[in-house]
């Protein structure tokens, strides 16, 4: 650790000198070299130290006694410890060739590359940020009085919930009863929040000048969407209309309203909870969202809901539809995508770089036409459907029961509460002629999307891309084309990133 005494060992030509020193910052390194050794035993010895103090005088005496020259000077003591630098001197006091006393030029170039607008737009926000403290406290207070289910009861309840998903006359009161609502808060609340927050951050990056004052969250559940909206758009958000038909879910979400508004300093956020969609205040919401709810709606009712949500979206605003990243959720997103594209003034914003038929649609378009699980498994064999992943950390209190049941796994808690949540989504924007005049310096609407994690190998990177012409292609970005530009960006790329380059050679077209 920093500031703790370390025992250092210097070995020069077989001679060992052992002494104590006090390392204030191990990020800095001081190099020594000596010419009195034979060429075979000549070494450059790395001596870890930083910020010399009064007690380091003894260390300097020991170093000088073996014929080495320390590189620390009085000016080095005042150097900011957050700026790691490398110093090197020979016996004659000169700096060897190729060693710089300032920040490495490669680091400066790397920093400039990461801050370039094209790189900033192409990289999606996949941060591993934890949930807000206020959100954790609110959920902990609710779960303190929540009933606990046995393993058999939880299994039976899950089976009943799955059987009611495709019920044409779905009653949300039966779908999400009291126990099911608490289980959703304990298991799915934070996962939903992390996925929604990531998609909203992408919307904020892609739509320049989007002034989000009013938002509509259909199927709000336990309030994960309201938490994400307040966290991403901050004090500019004034009103959130949350629509949730299940009374138990709505009561849990209403309990957290004061915590959501209290987490924003100097905010006048007003959160309204209702059981039905608005019929009068249409065409005024900058963001309209339906997260993890369309799969629970029968396809025959989906058209009316999407039309109503699209009517509530203001010109220049966006409609976000999210589902779990399984075959059924991806098929639901494909169905919603095709329905919204047929509506007036609709243009796709993410993740698709085109408005043509999805390459996966030919295989999974008819997945929602049956409720037979055997046929669904046959149609959804493999994982060749459009989905992405978000890393989520589930806090300690939801998995406390797991630790009590299996105390031997407590040491591996760090790995048990990290999950990769698959999700599928589509973001549609309502065309606004006035907003179209002000565009970004770089238009990423036609950039390809990485539909699978990049395969990074020695000297080349393999990318699976969904192109703007509606096809899926595999591109190989090799170092032989140059270490900068495409190859460097390919090395930094992650799943679901945008790809701004067009590389004709070494390209293969995949048949889906």
Coarse shape: globular
Q: Report the structural category.
A: alpha/beta
Our estimate of the beta-strand percent is: 15-25%
The CATH superfamily label of the largest domain reads Vaccinia Virus protein VP39
Q: Over the alpha carbons, how many angstroms does the gyration radius reach?
A: 29 Å
Tally of separate helices: 20
Distance between the terminal alpha carbons, to the nearest Å?
52 Å
Question: Are there runs of 5+ residues with pLDDT below 50, and where?
Answer: 1-55, 70-93, 97-102, 149-171, 396-406, 409-415, 507-512
Name of the CATH architecture of the largest domain: 3-Layer(aba) Sandwich
Could you say what the CATH topology of the largest domain is called? Rossmann fold
How many domain units?
Answer: 3
In round numbers, the mean pLDDT is: 69
Major pleated sheet: 8 strands, mixed
Number of extended strands: 19
CATH class of the largest domain: Alpha Beta
Helix coverage percent of residues? 25-40%
Keywords: Iron, Iron-sulfur, Metal-binding, Mitochondrion, Transit peptide
GO molecular function, one term: methyltransferase activity
Pfam family, one: Rsm22
Subcellular location: Mitochondrion
Provide structural commentary.
GO terms for molecular function: iron-sulfur cluster binding; metal ion binding; methyltransferase activity; structural constituent of ribosome. Keywords: Iron, Iron-sulfur, Metal-binding, Mitochondrion, Transit peptide. InterPro entries: Mt_RNA_Methyltransferase, Ribosomal_Rsm22-like, SAM-dependent_MTases_sf. It holds the Pfam family Rsm22. The chain has 512 residues and is α/β, with parallel strands linked by helices. The chain has 3 domains: 5-107, no CATH class; 133-376 and 419-434, Vaccinia Virus protein VP39 (Rossmann fold, 3-Layer(aba) Sandwich), CATH 3.40.50.150; 446-510. It contains 20 helices and 19 strands. It has helices at residues 57-65, 74-77, 105-114, 117-122, 133-144, 151-164, 172-175, 178-187, 189-206, 224-233, 247-255, 257-262, 299-312, 327-341, 361-364, 373-379, 400-405, 413-416, 433-436, 486-492; strands at residues 5-12, 15-22, 29-33, 44-48, 86-88, 214-218, 239-243, 270-274, 285-291, 313-324, 346-350, 388-393, 418-430, 448-450, 455-457, 460-466, 472-478, 498-499, 507-510. β9, α13 and β10 (313-324) form a beta-alpha-beta unit. α9 packs parallel to α10 and α13 (299-312) packs across α14. The longest helix has 18 residues, at 189-206. The two termini are 52 Å apart. Residues 1-55, 70-93, 97-102, 149-171, 396-406, 409-415 and 507-512 have low confidence and may be disordered.
